[in-house]
Amino acid sequence: MANIRTIDLLLLDNIFDMGSGYVLNFSDRTMAQFFAEQLNIDIDAPVYQKEGTSKAKRLRCFLKTVDAPTAVRTLNALWEYREALRQNAQREEIVANAHGRLLEIINRLQGRPSHVQAPAAPAFNRAKAAQLRAELIALGNLPPHPRGYAFEKFLKDLFDSYGLAAREAFRLRGEQIDGSFLLGTETYLLEAKWHGAPIGNGELHAFHGKVEQKAAWTRGLFISQSSFTEDGLHAFGRSKRIICMDGLDLYDALTRELPINNVLERKVRHAGETGEPFARVRDLFPS
To answer: Which of 24, 29, 221, 227 is the most buried (most CB within 10 A)?
Structure first.
């Protein structure tokens, strides 16, 4: 059974417009059709009517009754439908950080740390997100040499906050690795740069060479605070074993309260579907 809390249901009420017994723009017929076609589920089954027969009451009962994987599939499907409606109508988002807060619920249902654990944690640990964002901004005031080490420490703290089992920088024979972390079951090596100019093709290829010398399942994440040159990304090519992230991505993710593991998963999926190593957070998570 999915561990849906009262505070989760309050947020879901706001996200999916469930305040008056409705769910988004569904009628009884179209809601039944959506659940049947998208999820192979009979939402009209009597077991989901224990708290009432309105669409909202049936959905709440359903989410509290089914197992966690089913609840996660349902929330993802409803979010995709909601976003299609909103973007088609060109409506502004009215729920603050809606997607990030929904992903926090999904993370918890999947057994992942939603953020640094604290007593009576809210749906999103805004204090920690604000602290990380402030630390990221403050790094810009440090001299170059200590800033590089501080940037690596910041990234380890960020990754650990989302249960990515980060490891600090280490040295192998003839090379320096800025760190590593686990995303799902895959090991990612980290290259972190805070330079004045965007990263070009040479540094991308150098890091990709480090990754290729490791086990076949090893992947890489290149984080460049100053981003990457268009020519460099073009020359680097497609279908590589690394994904890229820049300083604006970090700032956007923290500001919009998007869990970093979900950001990385979306980047991995984009790279897998397009072959492109870099896509901005604001393009992957349109507001």
So the answer is: 221
Q: 139 with 276, same domain?
A: yes
pTM of the model: 0.64
In this structure, the answer to whether residues 47 and 142 fall within a common structural domain is no
DSSP-derived secondary structure letter, 182: E
Q: Which helix (H) or strand (E) holds 32?
A: helix 28-39
The dihedral through the CA atoms of 16, 22, 23, 24 has a sign that is: negative
117-137 per-position pLDDT tens digit: 333 333 346 788 889 999 999
Contacts of 150 (CB under 8 A, 6+ apart): 139, 142
Pairing of strands 186-193, 180-183: antiparallel
Cα–Cα distance between 138 and 154 in angstroms, integer?
11
Exposure on the CB side of residue 97, measured as CA atoms within 13 A: 18
Kindly state the tokens that stand for 139: 């790094």
Domain of 34 in residue numbering reads as 6-95
Query: Same domain for 144 and 265?
Result: yes
Are β-strands 219-224 and 242-246 bridged in parallel, bridged antiparallel, or unpaired? parallel
